[in-house]
């Protein structure tokens, strides 16, 4: 893997769950086990991340930019060992068309919880060693697939505080004609911070979310 990924590898090895999010899996075991693929690649402008926009007709998190991913299937195996790895690659292939053989997995982050949909999510980190064509596979699931340069994610001009209609505040990124917010923005925000890539930005710059967000 390229040397610029070393800080991410170290962050994945040392980060503790409360440092990543205040929403952690319920102790009683509730929640649907799932995984997302946090895929780093090398594009024309340097390091980049793979994201997608979920279809607006989906029941959960409709229309939101997100990492590829979804719920674990029984065939994926143990949700506490290899299950999330298999699920992240399988879902990424189904949603973006990427060839999983070109992806090198190098770590996992602590499991997190999304209260609104009751998903217990394992972020799986990958290096896009051999890039392959990507695009929308099923319009019923995915509206578009795109990559975002890490340079844009760290640019203070693209950083905002997203304001939920219920008053919740969280990190946001205005990139590639999209507002990345919620769970996905939270993971990106913490990765940038613990990898030492974060640049000072104006947290008072707020962007309200649509009422249906």
Automatic annotation (TrEMBL):
Q: Which UniProt keywords apply?
A: Hydrolase, Magnesium, Manganese, Metal-binding
Needs which cofactor?
A: Mg(2+); Mn(2+)
Top-rank taxon: Bacteria
Report domain Nudix hydrolase positions: 30-175
Q: Does the keyword Magnesium apply?
A: yes
List where the protein spans the membrane. none
The record's region (Disordered) falls at: 60-84
Q: What GO annotations for molecular function exist for this entry?
A: coenzyme A diphosphatase activity; metal ion binding
Q: Which InterPro entries does the record associate with it?
A: CoAse (IPR045121), NUDIX_hydrolase-like_dom_sf (IPR015797), NUDIX_hydrolase_dom (IPR000086)
Q: What is this protein called?
A: Coenzyme A pyrophosphatase
Q: Record the organism.
A: Streptomyces subrutilus
